Amino acid sequence: MQPGRISRPVVGVDISRGSWVAVRLDADGRFDGAALAPTIAGIVADLGRDAALIGIDVPIGLSDTGVRAADLAARAALPGRAASVFLTPVRAALLEPDHAAATRISREVTGAGISRQAHGLRHKILDVDDFAPRSPVPLVEIHPELSFRRLGTAVIPVVVPGSKRSWSGIRQRIRLLAAAGIDIGEDIGDAGRECGPDDVLDAAAVAWSARRVLAGTADRFPADGADPGTSGQAVIFA
Q: 3-class DSSP state for residue 138?
């Protein structure tokens, strides 16, 4: 992926209440729509067909042997918020529908169990894992807490916004996105009626970072991670 001038839209995607929620930014980085879909393929068909890049707050690139270096690097970059980056379960644990059995597999491979929250996301993680190799649009992994931290240092001096589920945290995130030229209106269709506001804001922050990936200015975790789209080490961007 060659960095350069951004001439096409990008899309940011997050999980919201069992569905995918997506925010699209036009070539100038302005809000250009939001959508809900049950699958990543549906998001691409709705908002992403002409996109240059889609950023997703879900692991891309699963491990068979242990904890991903990308997760550890992202956690280290979020002091006080490290728990917002869950350690991606190994593939065999994600393929196991029973949580207790998945925990046993995880302990055998990594020495640690798997949280119910992480296991509960297995269908979404596996959706991306299945779709990524055949996606018509490049997909990259982006964590919104890292994106908002970077936004806070890039546009206005709010380095660590409050909890994304608090009123203060939501207002700070809206202000950070607005300062970056991303104004999400009140009427954004089903995404505005059916999603939590924090999920919509997270998707917008992911889209902001997707533009940074295209521009070649995004932070990478780990810093020496492989390029997106390769078969190498997983990498998280911000």
A: coil
Distances (CA, A) of 37 to 16, 119, 123: 10, 21, 14
Cα angle value 91/24/144 (rounded, 5°): 50
Tokens of 151: 């936004």
Summarised one tens digit per residue, pLDDT across range 165-177 is 888 889 999 999 9
Q: Which of 42, 43, 49, 37 shows the shortest CA–CA distance to 12?
A: 43
Contacts of 231 (CB under 8 A, 6+ apart): none
| Cα–Cα dist 198/24, whole Å | 16
Q: Can you read off the two tokens belonging to residue 125?
A: 């993680």
Higher pLDDT among residues 231 and 3, named by residue: 3
Could you report the per-residue pLDDT of 197-222, keeping only the tens digit for each? Answer: 999 999 999 999 999 999 999 999 99
Instruction: Compute the distance between CA of residue 30 and CA of residue 4 in angstroms, rounded to an integer.
Output: 18
Query: Exposed (0-12), middle (13-18) or buried (19+): which is 210, by Cβ within 10 Å?
Result: buried
CA distance readout (Å), 69 to 80, 95, 238: 19, 21, 16
Specify which residues 12 forms β-bridges with: 23, 55
Cis bond upstream, residue 144 (ω within 30): no
26-55 pLDDT, tens digit per residue, is 999 999 999 999 999 999 999 998 999 999
Give this prediction's pTM: 0.92
